[in-house]
Amino acid sequence: MGRERKSKLKRMRPQFLVLCEGDTEITYVNMLRQNYRLPIKIVARKVGCRVSQRLIDRYRKDMTGSVDAKTTFLMFDGDKPEIVDTILSCKGVSLMSKPCIEVWFFAHFRVPPETSVSSAECVKQLNGIKNWETYQKGSLSSTQEKQLWTNRKTAVHNMKSKSPESNQFSSVYQFIQKLEEASEQQ
Known about the structure:
It is a single chain. With 186 residues, the chain is of the alpha/beta class. The chain has one domain. The protein contains eight helices and five strands, in the order E-H-E-H-E-H-E-H-H-H-H-E-H. Strands 2-1-3-4-5 form a five-stranded mixed β-sheet, sandwiched between helices. Strand 3, helix 3 and strand 4 form a beta-alpha-beta unit.
């Protein structure tokens, strides 16, 4: 008579669906996926301003696995009130950056000031940081990616210290915290 085998229970791999506004967010999410190297499926999709609950449901349906293993993140700029209202009405974790994702990048080096700025002015703030002088939306140099990776916990700390009502704020730190938790569980 042979031995009885006991198989380990398989845990479902978490899956993160990240719907993004533009190319910059997609580039950033892909950089995170490469650096974390977690057994987590991260699906990033550029949807622009077309975000809706119906679209989210369609993308979630295309993902395999149990519903419990799927988390949806909505990474958008907070400079358009109509988009903010739509995002807040959808099911998912809102990763809003006011006025734009570049405020999140800036937080990797300094606490963003309280002054109200446009997206273009926010990019100018970022251009004042070493190795970011030539930054352009939609792409990151390898040096910039390395700085974002190395300083990610500084950015989390800098944004957690600010109020969501601040003129310059980003909740992208919540995504980093989720990835860090998953990294620790590995």
